[in-house]
Amino acid sequence: MSVTLVKEKYSSKVGEVVLGATAEQGGTRTSTITVGGDSALPFLHFEGEMKNRPVIAMEVTDIVPTWNDLIKNQIGDVINDPAAWAKKMRGRFWR
Fold it and tell me: Residue 42 is part of which domain span?
C-alpha cells in the first residue's frame, strides 16, 4: 500500500543571515555560518529548498539559569563561570 505525501507550497522563504565575518569582510573570524534561506519547514526536503544545513547553538549566560537540575548537572561546575562554560561547550560539541 503506497502513501501519498501531502506537500505544502510556501510563497516566501525564511530570511538568510550570515553570522561572523572573515578578515576579507572586515572581521576576525576564520569562517562564517549562514542560517535560514529555506523555503520549507525543517527536514521536509520534498516541500522546498533546504539552502543551508541546520545549525544548533548553545546559550551561555552570566547568570545561573533557572533550569531543571538535570540540565544544570550536564553543564557542571562551570555554570558559575561564563568563560569556562563557553570553553566547555566548544570543546564538547564543536567540530
Answer: 9-55
Pairing of strands 17-19, 33-35: antiparallel
Runs of H (alpha helix) within 1-81: 69-75
Q: Is the whole-model pTM more than 0.85?
A: no
| 50 and 85 part of one domain | no
CB of 75 closer than 8 Å to CB of 59: no
The helix (run of H) or strand (run of E) holding residue 53 is: none
What tens digit of pLDDT does each residue of 66-83 get?
A: 999 998 998 999 999 999
Cell of 63: 547568570
In total, how many domains does the chain have? 2
The string over 55-69, giving b where at least 16 C-beta atoms fall within 10 Å of a residue's C-beta and e elsewhere, is eeeeebeeeeeeeee
- Residue located via cell numbers 564538547: 92
